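A reminder from the course coordinator: this example appears on the midterm review sheet, so study it carefully.

Given structure:
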């Protein structure tokens, strides 16, 4: 399997000392997972390398023959403004550092400094460069208003403009190595979205999914990080975890809002440092996977209530994809109905049925608390009972009637339909408005309008007749 290079842009090391180039490239690979590295020991070749390759970051020495580091810094800043530069000099001089920063260097380090300082500086620069590139891509995609690879979203059947914007955002962040948070109510298709993000990333490794709800800390650690033989009772053999299985691919953690505080600490280290320890081992391992997490919970509220660590919350919010509920995507209902009917007909060995024209407005006026998962279940249930050419609406009505909303006085007052700035309408006027609105929502179907109003169809017909005579 071909390994995915990190980052997705090149990191160019420029120094006339070949030994330093070898040492720093090995250090970056081991300590920071940086593998997309170019080396250059001749300063005259820098312009050509930058012109011919996708370079995002340069680590630049100052004292070199032919073209000095300061001159190279000025050239990069002027001709390749999208490239960040870190100066790594053998001279520990304040005026040199100040001059480098004034000329446009992102940071300055001395070769004799603690290597951890340089690594952390490189990691900061990588995150900054990734964010800037993602912002440029996002602006470009929203400006063109088109998807580059619409086939990546074939499983997500929609005609919603909101979902189309979600797809554009996914394409823009696809190549990022930062974690992605997917939120949305249960049943909206968060796992399908995670699969689309993985496909869009073009990573060579697999998508590995783990539902972390209900996992205690030991099981969470063993599942994700693996364990050494004898790490706990029953651990007779060493086993790799899901992080290892997802190497050069994507690790998808579902129901992240249910994670214990102890497990949150370990996840935070994994996201921040890209490192983890298998259970029973004191040898650190590096993660080579992109992390996607999903939840139906309100993480902001969980953080405020102390159930979610604040630092983990902000780490997870780097890229945020929110999937709207089905009740906010009513234009998708007819599409999904046709899709689920075709799937159910195939599964049950039945012919694809037609359905009453009243079915679509009936479904459009239902809140779908279980979203797309509930909708699919409704259609399959209806197909199990289907025998005639026309699909019966009884199975749908049974579910909808079982979830009929109860509007108590407090709810109505909270979501008032009245405007305090205008005169209060009379009961007769309000009744007429309700009838008109119900007929509008039912697309003129009196039977459905009567259901929405909670009255009989004859009673509605009587009211409509009075309205027409006024």
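Designed residues:
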């Amino acid at each position: 399997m071909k390994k995915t290079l990190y980052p997705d842009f090149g990191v160019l090391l420029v120094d006339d000392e070949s030994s330093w180039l070898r040492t720093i490239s090995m250090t970056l690979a081991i300590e920071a997972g940086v593998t997309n590295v170019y080396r250059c020991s001749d300063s005259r070749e820098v312009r050509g390398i930058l012109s011919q390759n996708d370079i995002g970051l340069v680590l630049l020495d100052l004292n070199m023959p032919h073209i000095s580091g300061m001159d190279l810094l000025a050239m990069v800043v002027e001709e390749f403004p999208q490239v960040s530069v870190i100066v790594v000099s053998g001279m520990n001089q304040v005026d040199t550092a100040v001059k480098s920063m004034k000329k446009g260097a992102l940071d300055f380090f001395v070769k004799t400094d603690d290597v951890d300082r340089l690594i952390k500086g490189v990691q900061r620069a990588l995150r900054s460069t990734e964010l800037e590139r993602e912002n440029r891509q996002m602006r470009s995609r929203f400006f063109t208003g088109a998807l580059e690879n619409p086939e990546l979203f074939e499983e997500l059947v929609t005609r919603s403009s909101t979902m189309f914007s979600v797809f554009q955002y996914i394409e823009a962040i696809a190549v990022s190595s930062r974690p992605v948070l997917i939120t949305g109510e249960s049943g909206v298709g968060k796992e399908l979205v995670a699969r689309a993000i993985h496909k869009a990333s073009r990573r060579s490794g697999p998508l590995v999914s783990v539902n972390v709800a209900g996992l205690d800390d030991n099981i969470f650690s063993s599942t994700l990080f693996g364990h050494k033989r004898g790490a706990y009772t029953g651990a007779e053999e060493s086993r790799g975890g899901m992080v290892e299985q997802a190497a050069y691919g994507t690790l998808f953690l579902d129901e992240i809002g249910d994670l214990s505080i102890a497990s949150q600490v370990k996840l935070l280290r994994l996201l921040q440092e890209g490192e983890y320890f298998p259970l029973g081992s004191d040898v650190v391992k590096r993660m080579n996977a992109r992390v996607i997490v999903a939840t139906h919970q309100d993480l902001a509220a969980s953080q405020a209530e102390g159930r979610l660590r604040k630092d983990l919350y902000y780490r997870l919010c780097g890229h945020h994809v929110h999937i709207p509920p089905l009740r906010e995507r009513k234009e998708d209902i007819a599409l999904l109905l046709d899709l689920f009917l075709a799937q159910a007909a195939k599964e049950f060995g039945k012919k694809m049925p037609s359905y009453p024209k009243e079915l679509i407005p009936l479904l459009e006026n239902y809140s779908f608390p279980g979203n797309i998962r509930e909708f699919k279940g409704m259609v399959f249930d209806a197909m199990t009972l289907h025998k005639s050419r026309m699909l019966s609406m009884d199975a749908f009505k049974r579910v909808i009637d079982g979830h009929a909303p109860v509007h108590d006085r407090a709810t109505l007052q909270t979501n008032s339909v009245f405007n305090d700035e205008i005169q209060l309408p009379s009961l007769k006027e309000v009744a007429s408005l309700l009838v008109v609105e119900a007929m509008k929502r039912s697309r003129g179907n009196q039977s459905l309008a009567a259901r929405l109003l909670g009255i009989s169809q004859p009673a509605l017909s009587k009211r409509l007749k009075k309205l027409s005579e006024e």
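Residues 158 and 409 are 36 Å apart (CA to CA). The two ends are 76 Å apart (CA to CA).
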